[in-house]
Specification:
Blueprint (H helix, E strand, L loop, with lengths): L16 H12 L1 H16 L10 H14 L8 E8 L1 H9 L3 H9 L3 E8 L6 E7 L4 E5 L10 E5 L2 E5 L10 H19 L13 E4 L6 E8 L7 E10 L2 E11 L13 H30 L5 H28 L4 H40 L5 H7 L6 H25 L8 H10 L4 H8 L1 H20 L5 H15 L1 H4 L5 H21 L2 H23 L4 H24 L5 H4 L3 H25 L10 E8 L8 E6 L4 E8 L5 H17 L6 H17 L7 E8 L4 E7 L4 E6 L3 E2 L6 E4 L11 E7 L5 E5 L1 H10 L6 H10 L6 H11 L8 E8 L12
Length: about 850
C-alpha cells in the first residue's frame, strides 16, 4: 500500500520508516479513538444520567401550561430560566435513605428550575418553580405594580385581573394577618400533601410585605419527625384574601447531620489562587514585551485587534447566554430595565478590554515563537489572511482533531479507573442545558478558554524562556510547568486531585504535542476539539435532550473532517512570505543580523589562540568575553624565538563580521612583521597603516591595539600602543601598581596624520611574583562603573584573586571576568603575565 499521500500530513522531520507507520496509524484510526473515548465517557457518566430531566424549552412550556391553568396568559412575555442548586440538600437526599424522603424531595427539590415570565410593560412578574423532572414545586406572582390599575386576584384555582385600587381600610393589620394565616393554612391543607409528613402549628413568621402592603407572607419552619437535621421552609403569600405565592424549600443543619456535608473545595480555591497569580504576572510581562516589540517595529497591531475581537465575541456569547437570566431573576423588572443597557455596554467594554489584553499577550509572544520555531505560525497566518481552504490550514485542522481524539481516548481510558464526582457532573452541565443559547454557547462561547490557554500557556512562556538562559530539556520542562499553570482553572472544576491532575495533564498534552509536532493552529484546534467533545458527550450522557444535537453535530464534524482531509491532500499550499504579517520582514532582517553576529562570533573564536605559550620563567593567561555576542576585541601570541614572544591585544569598533576580518588581516600582517628586526613601535605603525586602508579607505581607523615583545631571559617587555585602549599596567609584588605614565614615551613617524592618536612606546622589567596586565576599555569601564572612579580598584581585586595559590592563573582570570560579564557594556579582554621561577611553565588553556 502506497503511503506517499502521508507526506503531505506528516510533521516536517520524520526520523525513520517506523515513525511513518505510527503517523499512518495516528491519522487513519483517530475516528476510532473518538469512538472509544466517547463510549468510555458515556459509561463513566452513566451513574449521573437524568432520564426525565427537562431542558430550557420543555421547562418554559411546562411553566406556560401552569400559568394558563391559573388564568394568566404569558404569551409575548419575556422568559428567563435559571437552575438553583442546593448542594447540601442534595448531599442529604443522597446519603439519607428513608421512605418519607421521596415525598419530601418532590415538595422541596435540591435542584429547582426557576422560570420567570415578565410582561412587556414591566408591571407583572410570574415565577414558576419546577423540579428537574417537571412537577411544579411552587409559584410566585411577584410584586405587581399599581401602574395601569392592575391588581391580581386568585380564586378557586384561577387568577383574574380586576380594576380596584382600594382595599378594606377598616380592617386592622392584626386581623389582616390572622386572615392571611387562615387562608394560607387552608391552601396548604387542601393543595399539598404535607400533613402526612409534618405537623403545621402556628406560623413562624407573618410579615406584611414592605413593597406591597396588600401582600402578607406567612412562613412555617418545621422538621419531619425522624429528620431533625432537615428543616422545611414553607412559605405562602396572601394578597387580598387570595394566595399569590407558594414555595417549600429545604435546609440541612450541618451540626446535626450524621455525614460530612460538602464544603468549598480547598483544591479549587488553591488552584484558582495560583491561576490568578499566574495570569497577573503574565499580563505585566505581556505589556512590557509588547511595548518593547512595538518600539522595535516587530508586532502586528492589526493581528492584536483580530485576536482581541475573537476573544471578545466568544466571551460575550458565553456571558450573555449564562448571565442575563441570572440577573433578571434576582432583581425587579424596573431595576433590570434600568440596568440592562448600561450593563450590556459596560460588559462589552469590559470584554473588549479583556480581549485587548489577550491580543497584547499574543502579540508579545508571537514574534519570539516565529523566530525560534520557523513555520509553526504559517497555517495560523494563512487562516487569519483568509486562506481557509489552503493545504496548510486543512492539514493543521486535521492534525489537531486527530490529536484531540487520541487524547480523549487516553483521558477516559485512565479516568475509567478513577473515582468520579457524579454530583458535580450534572451541576456543571445544567448551566449549558438551561442557557439562553445552549448550542451556540458550546460552539462559540467555549473558544475563549482555548485561546487563553494557548496564549498564556505557550506563546508568553515561550517568549520568556527564549530570552532566558534556559536551554534544551530545561526549557521544555519549564514550558510544561507554565502550560500547567495556564490550565489550573480547568483543573479546579474537579473535586478530587487525581481527576484534576489527569484533566490538566491531558490539556497540556493537547497544547504542546500538536505544537511541537505540527504548528500553533493544530494546538488550538486540539484544545478546542477536546474541550468541545468532552462537554458535548458529558451533556448527552447525562441529559437526553442533548442527544439529537450531538448526533447532528457528529455528522457535521465528519463532513468537515472529510473536506479537511481532501484539502490537506489536494489543496493549494501557501508560501510563508505571502501570509505572514508585515512586521515579519523586520524580524527577518534582525534575524539576519543575528546570524551575521553569530558567524562573526564563531570566526572570532576560531581566530583566538587555542593554547597559551609556554616559556620558562613566565606564566601566561588570557581571556576575551564578548559583551554583545561579538565585538572587536582580540588577542594573539607570536613565538619569535626560544626566549621571545610577541603579544598582540586589539580593541575593535564592534563591526560584527568586519571585526573578524580585521583580526584575520592583523594576524597576517603580524605573522610577517614580527619576524623582521623592527621595533614594537615600527610594527604598530605598519599594522595601523595596513588596517586603516582596508577599513576606511585611507581615513584613520578606530581600531586601537598594543603590541609587545616579552623576553623571558631578561624578563623585559618592550611594547608600543595606539589609541586610548588597550593599556598595560605592572603590579609589583611588594609595592602594587606602577605608574604607567613613567613607562611610556611618544614615538614620532614622518607622514603620519597629525590628528591621529599618538603611538606610545614603553618598556618594563618583571621581578619574581610581579604581574603584567594588558586590558581593554571593557575592563576599564568595569572599574569606573562598579567602583565609582576609584582608580585600579577592580584590577586590585583581580590581583587579589590572582594571588590565590590554590587556583591556576588562567582559571582565576576567566572566572573573575565571567562574574562581571553581565554588567559589561563592552568586551572584556585581558592578558596577564606573571614572573615565576624558571622551572615553572604555563600549562593553562585559553578561554
Amino acid at each position: 500500500m502506497s503511503t506517499a499521500w502521508l507526506d503531505e500530513l506528516l510533521p516536517k522531520a520524520i526520523v525513520s520508516p517506523r515513525f511513518r507507520i505510527l503517523w499512518l496509524v495516528f491519522f487513519l484510526l483517530f475516528p476510532l479513538a473518538y469512538l472509544g473515548g466517547v463510549m468510555l465517557e458515556t459509561v463513566e457518566e452513566r451513574p449521573a444520567q437524568m432520564q426525565n430531566a427537562l431542558d430550557r424549552t420543555l421547562a418554559i412550556k411546562a411553566a406556560q401550561k401552569f400559568a394558563e391553568s391559573k388564568g394568566i396568559s404569558v404569551a409575548g412575555w419575556s422568559q428567563y430560566v435559571v437552575v438553583e442548586n442546593h448542594d447540601k440538600l442534595l448531599e442529604y437526599y443522597e446519603n439519607v435513605h428513608r421512605p418519607e424522603l421521596a415525598a419530601i424531595r418532590k415538595l422541596a427539590p435540591a435542584r429547582e428550575i426557576n422560570v420567570l415570565f415578565r410582561s412587556p410593560d414591566l408591571t407583572k412578574d410570574f415565577h414558576v418553580y419546577l423540579s428537574l423532572a417537571g412537577p411544579i414545586s411552587g409559584f410566585d406572582t411577584g410584586k405587581f405594580s399599581n401602574e395601569g390599575n392592575a391588581d391580581i386576584d386568585i380564586g378557586a384555582g384561577n387568577i383574574q385581573i380586576k380594576n380596584d385600587k382600594t382595599s378594606a381600610k377598616g380592617t386592622t393589620m392584626k386581623a389582616a394577618s390572622k386572615e392571611a394565616e387562615t387562608i394560607a393554612l387552608r391552601f396548604l391543607v387542601d393543595g399539598i400533601k404535607l400533613n402526612d409528613l409534618v405537623q403545621l402549628g402556628p406560623p413562624t413568621r407573618v410579615d406584611v410585605n414592605e413593597d406591597d402592603p396588600r401582600r402578607t407572607d406567612v412562613t412555617w419552619e418545621v422538621s419531619p419527625p425522624d429528620d431533625k437535621e432537615l428543616t422545611l421552609h414553607v412559605s405562602v403569600a396572601v394578597r387580598d384574601s387570595q394566595v399569590v405565592a407558594e414555595r417549600i424549600t429545604g435546609q440541612v443543619d450541618g451540626d446535626k447531620a450524621k455525614f460530612a456535608l460538602p464544603k468549598t473545595s480547598k483544591l479549587s480555591v488553591f488552584l484558582n489562587s495560583i491561576y490568578g497569580l499566574f495570569l497577573t504576572f503574565s499580563l505585566f510581562y505581556a505589556i512590557f514585551r509588547y511595548a518593547k516589540r512595538t518600539f522595535q517595529k516587530e508586532v502586528s497591531h492589526l493581528r492584536t485587534l483580530v485576536v482581541a475581537g475573537l476573544f471578545c465575541v466568544s466571551y460575550s456569547v458565553y456571558a450573555y447566554s449564562l448571565a442575563v437570566d441570572e440577573v433578571a431573576t434576582r432583581v425587579s423588572a424596573h431595576q433590570f430595565a434600568s440596568i440592562q443597557l448600561p450593563a450590556y455596554v459596560s460588559a462589552v467594554l469590559a470584554f473588549a478590554v479583556m480581549g485587548l489584553l489577550v491580543g497584547i499577550a499574543y502579540g508579545s509572544g508571537e514574534g519570539e515563537v516565529r523566530e525560534a520555531y520557523p513555520g509553526r505560525l504559517t497555517p495560523l497566518d494563512a487562516l487569519l489572511a483568509g486562506r481557509i481552504f489552503s493545504r496548510d490550514v486543512s492539514a493543521s485542522v486535521l492534525a489537531g482533531a486527530a490529536a484531540a481524539g487520541w487524547l480523549l481516548l487516553c483521558q477516559h481510558g485512565l479516568g475509567y479507573f478513577l473515582p468520579t464526582d457524579m454530583e458535580g457532573t450534572p451541576t456543571e452541565g445544567l448551566k449549558y442545558t438551561f442557557a439562553r443559547l445552549p448550542w451556540l454557547t458550546l460552539l462559540v462561547g467555549r473558544q475563549w478558554q482555548s485561546l487563553l490557554i494557548a496564549v498564556a500557556g505557550l506563546l508568553l512562556p515561550a517568549a520568556f524562556l527564549l530570552r532566558s538562559k534556559s536551554r534544551g530539556k530545561r526549557r521544555f520542562v519549564w514550558l510544561v510547568v507554565f502550560a500547567l499553570c495556564a490550565v489550573l482553572h480547568e483543573g479546579a472544576r474537579y473535586s478530587t486531585v487525581p481527576e484534576a491532575l489527569l484533566a490538566m495533564g491531558v490539556l497540556v498534552c493537547a497544547l504542546l504535542l500538536p505544537f511541537f509536532a505540527f504548528d500553533l493552529l493544530a494546538a488550538i484546534v486540539s484544545l478546542s476539539a477536546l474541550a468541545f467533545v468532552n462537554e458535548l458527550v458529558e451533556l448527552s450522557a447525562v441529559f437526553p435532550s442533548w442527544t439529537a444535537f450531538a448526533a447532528w453535530l457528529a455528522g457535521l464534524a465528519a463532513a468537515v473532517l472529510a473536506i479537511a482531509t481532501y484539502l490537506a491532500l489536494r489543496g493549494a499550499p501557501v508560501r510563508e512570505e505571502d501570509v505572514q504579517p508585515l512586521y515579519a520582514k523586520n524580524l527577518a532582517e534582525r534575524m539576519g543580523l543575528q546570524a551575521e553576529v553569530q558567524a562573526a562570533r564563531e570566526a572570532q573564536l576560531r581566530l583566538l589562540p587555542q593554547m597559551a605559550p609556554q616559556m620558562p620563567g613566565i606564566e601566561f593567561a588570557a581571556c576575551c568575553l564578548p559583551a554583545r555576542g561579538v565585538g572587536g576585541d582580540f588577542y594573539d601570541f607570536f613565538q619569535l624565538d626560544a626566549n621571545r614572544i610577541g603579544i598582540f591585544v586589539a580593541q575593535g569598533g564592534e563591526r560584527g563580521l568586519a571585526s573578524a576580518l580585521c583580526i584575520a588581516l592583523a594576524k597576517g600582517i603580524l605573522m610577517h612583521a614580527s619576524q623582521q628586526t623592527h621595533s614594537a613601535a615600527q610594527i604598530v605603525r605598519q599594522l595601523e597603516s595596513g588596517m586603516t586602508k582596508l577599513l576606511q579607505g585611507g581615513r584613520e581607523a578606530d581600531i586601537s591595539f598594543i603590541y609587545g615583545v616579552m623576553d623571558s631571559q631578561r624578563r623585559m617587555l618592550n611594547y608600543a600602543r595606539v589609541g586610548v585602549s588597550p593599556r598595560v599596567l605592572v603590579h609589583r609584588r611588594d609595592s602594587g601598581f606602577a605608574n604607567a605614565a613613567n613607562l611610556e614615551r611618544r614615538a614620532e613617524f614622518v607622514g603620519r596624520h597629525e590628528k591621529a592618536f599618538p603611538i606610545l612606546e614603553g618598556a618594563t622589567n618583571l621581578g619574581p611574583g610581579d604581574h603584567l596586565i594588558f586590558f581593554t576599555e571593557g575592563v576599564a569601564s568595569l572599574r569606573l562603573k562598579r567602583f565609582r572612579n576609584r582608580a585600579n580598584q577592580w584590577l586590585e581585586l583581580l590581583m587579589h584573586q590572582l594571588g590565590q595559590p590554590h587556583e591556576s592563573l588562567q582559571t582565576v582570570l576567566a572566572s573573575t571576568l565571567e562574574k562581571y560579564q553581565s554588567h559589561a557594556s563592552e568586551d572584556l579582554t585581558a592578558v596577564v603575565l606573571r614572573a615565576v621561577g624558571r622551572e615553572s611553565l604555563a600549562r593553562e588553556g585559553v578561554a
